[in-house]
Structures are given as C-alpha cells and as structure tokens.
Prior knowledge:
The protein is mostly helical. It has helices spanning 2-22, 24-43, 46-63, 68-84, 90-109, 124-137, 142-145, 148-168, 178-200, 204-210; strands at residues 113-114, 173-174.
Amino acid sequence: MYLNLHKTHISEHLKKIAKDLYNENMMKKYFKMPVKIQFKQVVISKFLNIIVFNLLWVGLVLGRETLIYLTFPSLLIYLACLIHIGNLKLYQILLPALIGIAIDSSLTFFGIFIFPESSLIIPFWLIVLWINFSTTLTLSLSFIGKNKLVAFGLGATALPFNYTVGERLGAVTFHEPYIFSILILVLVWSISFPILFIVSDENFIKRLRIR
C-alpha cells in the first residue's frame, strides 16, 4: 500500500514538472535567462580578456602583417561581443586606443621608434594592437585604474618593458642611444598610462557634457 502511494506521489510530481517545463514562462525562466546571463558573464570575464589579449598580442607582434588577416577579424568579433553582449561603450575602447596610437605615431615621427614596415607612421598591426590593449583597461586591468599611483608606477615600468619585449622580437627598433629611448618611454607612459584609465571610464563622456 505504501509503495503504491509512493508511486502515485512520484507520478503526480513528474506530471507537475512536465507541465511547468512546457509552460512558456517557466521555459524562459529556466532556460533562456540563465544561458543569456552566463554567456554575458563569459564575454566580459577578466579571464577571457587576458586570454584574448595575449593570443592577439602574440599574433600581432610576432606575425605582424603576415597574420593580420587572422588577428584583425578575431579582434572585431571580440569587440562586437563586448559591445553588443557585454554592454561596453565603443568610446571606452576607441578613446584610449586613439591616445596610444597618437603617442606611438609621435614617437615614430620624431625617430624614437623605427619600424621596418614604415617610416613616418606606425604600421597597421600596431593600430590593431592598441585597440586590443584598450579592451583590458575596463576588464582585466581595471583594478589598476582605481589607484592613480599604481597606474603611474606601472606606466613608468611595465609599458617600457613591454616595448622592449617587442623590440627584442624584431617588431620595432629603438633610436640610439638605447637608454635615451627607454627614458623617453618612462617619461611618456608614467604620465599617459593613468590617462588611459580616465578616458576608458564609462562615465567619462557624461562628465564632459556636464562641464
């Protein structure tokens, strides 16, 4: 008797579950919303951002113009996901990228940087690299922007070091004397690196409009 009642209870419970699953609201609650939320969390995750940035960095610095047909479309797809799914604003990526491009272009114009692919302007792969780097400012490197002193220190050390890595890999040549070029990079990026975080803030444009 107890077994039959137990079976009846299980049967009724299964029918209720089946009814709920076919209900449109329940389907939306159990399946649609969690998947969407989880996908958004993956897109804007710092872990994914680190992986994407480093993979593209390697492809752009080592492959340069040779791999640009692979790296550039890959970056565009990632940007589309960040903007349309991750809700990042386009200016959060473009503004710091434009500053970085302008600085590197100026250093190239004045002869601090010498690129084998170009003489007066920076190569296209470096432009793409700056756009790639700008995605980290609001994601994997966002914690740095919360402390201006840390941003200043890393701008004076980490960014010049990153340039020297690229130089050792043959992506760029520094003007001689070598130490002079390094000092220029230390001076420029100790000041400019904190600014990149300021312009990448989602409220930066709003503050300009208020002023």
